[in-house]
């Protein structure tokens, strides 16, 4: 299982909470994705490889945040049910995406993307701060961070639906949009509006 490492770091200002890929990272990604492997399906393209590389660590962070909530003293049944569904669904999808990545022999691309903090992911410092929360503070922060985590990845997921070449991955991406859009609506109801990170 590929996981995004979280190293202790000072809590950064809100402006760096949700960082996208820099121009340098984007250029490096394009260079890496120009190399196909013999094991890749003929219909698979660069969009598919980029999506796998970016989505696996993105999912892993959602799984990790859900684990924090589920191991906590937060006893709201609706929130715990949501966190469990996020955890189980994204774990299942990660297992399939990692299986495809292994079959296609794209370990270098997966490793490249594993270090990115993008598409709504939180910085290591913000994540570490999140893990120290309890009770109502954790309840609220989970909704804030997870809603943004979902919201910011929709565009990349739609790009996979529109431009990916591998049909099973396009279908998975379409299902992700449906599920995560519904989950955001649940979060908004629990929060009493649209959460802000």
From TrEMBL:
Keywords: Signal. Residues 1-27 form the signal peptide. PROSITE patterns: PROKAR_LIPOPROTEIN. Residues 48-191 form the DUF305 domain. It holds the Pfam family DUF305. Coiled coil: none annotated. This is DUF305 domain-containing protein. The lineage of its organism: Bacteria, Bacillati, Actinomycetota, Actinomycetes, Mycobacteriales.
